[in-house]
């Protein structure tokens, strides 16, 4: 299975494609020096095949290269980081009191 992963900033998401077909997405909101991951979805036929995990691994590696932190609002991203603390725990941004996280556009 040939998986390619790209950041698509104009859509605020990372995309995983398998043999050219969109297989999974990880949506995010940029916020100063933090990337807030809000939703991850593997599409029909790609669930349980490791595509979403490969997507999140690549996205987190990309965030690290940009020297940003991560706020994992998405349960899948939070669980992934929890399962791989030696690789990604240092990226996690803990929200402080009085600090708001960005909200998705309602339009």
Task: Kindly describe this structure.
There is one protein chain. The chain is α+β, with helices and mostly antiparallel strands and 107 residues long. The chain has a single domain, classed as Gcn5-related N-acetyltransferase (GNAT) (Aminopeptidase, 3-Layer(aba) Sandwich). It contains 3 helices and 5 strands, in the order E-E-E-E-H-E-H-H. The chain has helices at 51-65, 75-83, 85-88, and strands at 3-8, 13-18, 21-31, 34-42, 69-72. The protein has a 5-stranded mixed β-sheet with strand order 1-2-3-4-5. The longest helix has 15 residues, at 51-65. The chain is globular and about 35 Å long.
Describe the SSE topology:
Blueprint lengths: L2 E6 L4 E6 L2 E11 L2 E9 L8 H15 L3 E4 L2 H9 L1 H4 L19
Parallel strand pairs: 4-5
Antiparallel strand pairs: 1-2, 2-3, 3-4
């Amino acid at each position: 299975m040939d998986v390619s992963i790209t950041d698509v900033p104009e859509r605020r998401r990372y995309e995983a494609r398998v043999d050219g077909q969109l297989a999974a997405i990880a949506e995010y909101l940029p916020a100063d020096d933090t990337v807030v991951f809000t939703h991850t979805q593997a599409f029909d036929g790609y669930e349980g095949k490791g595509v979403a995990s490969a997507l999140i691994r690549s996205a987190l590696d990309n965030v690290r290269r940009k020297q940003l932190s991560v706020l994992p609002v998405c349960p899948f991203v939070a669980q992934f980081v929890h399962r791989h603390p030696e690789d990604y725990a240092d990226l996690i941004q803990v929200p402080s009191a009085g600090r708001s996280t960005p909200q998705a556009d309602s339009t």
